[in-house]
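Why does residue order matter? Because the sequence determines the fold. Keep that principle in mind as you read this record.
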Amino acid sequence: MARPSARARAQRASVVGKVQVPKSPKGEASGEGAAGVGPKGGANPLRVPILLWEPGKSGITALARMNTLNSPLSQFVISVVLLAALAPIIVWFFRDTWATLDAAAVVHRQNRGGRLDPRTPATLVLAAFCLILINYFGSLEFFDAHIVPALKRYDSAHPGILHVWLYEDLYWRIYWGLSRYLAYLLPLAVWPLLFKENPLDLGLRVRGFLEHAWIYLLCLAVVIPVLALVAHMGDFGTFYPMYHLAARSWLDLAVWEALYVGQFFALEVFFRGFWVRGSRALGSNAIFFMVAPYVMIHFPKPYLEACGALVAGVVLGSLSMKTRSIWAGFLVHATVAVLMDLLALDHRHELPTRLTPDSSVRLAFPYTSAVLFGVWVLAVTGLAFAFWRRHGRKVAAAS
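Structure:
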């Protein structure tokens, strides 16, 4: 069978009636309850949930409301309302941080006699080069053209090791992750050579993190209820996980989530560590210059998430400068992303049940909602405890 195009392979699933059929690595619709056989004619490793629920009157009403929320006009209105509501809150919360950054930038320029700090153009040029590397050498087209043939040659010479016919899409996601690790973390290797500075000063130090851990807990307490809502929206529910065979087995899901979390670490180092600190001579403007390309890497994602990236870019960039560390932002980003994947799979009834794609071992996990609620309760409890301690310290200081 001819290999599907990159565009076809990037599609997440075929929906036929009420049966959601994930694509196999070769692009064929497959699954238990569908064709009954997998790639190469073997036992099908994919689990296809068949949605037998027939909505009653109340269910139809709920579906109609959800369809309304999924319309482009509704999403545009929601985005404008939310951005307008969040803007004054963000300004109030970070205005002192921005003012401090601007004052430090003024002093820095005075100390340099008004001369341009070479760190700023070096940061912008190096950042642009890293994004070019990702766009060209980290693309699916490059993987298909150069990496897949090499994998297949090795698989032919050493059968029974790589199983390219079964794991080709997983290998693509591994390559996707590694390419981003290398590009996003490249400045950590280049920066000391250019300016003789410790790369840990680009936001990687953990000192003082616990002092600001309450901000991480606050973000989780606010974002988790939003996640529970958007998981039911069409764009989010079908887009995630980005690795569309994550539902095939726990091995697929575990490898993908490990790559995903690692990618968020590299991304936070790049945007909220290297970028904003390398261009700190711009003051608070360094944060807003960073936001534009950060939003642009979200363009293939759902519209509301791209709008959310606008907020996240400003908040996480400001948080990084406020705490002098990327760790709070990384933890928020990674936690929310993993929970979003699990919620999307759970909502579609597609959480994996096989240990590996070709395994007969079954392992069901019906507790996603409980995990989500538990994380939210822990965040709220931790936040309350942090506020109680801060209040106690103020009282002790006053006395």
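The chain is about 65% helix and 0% strand.
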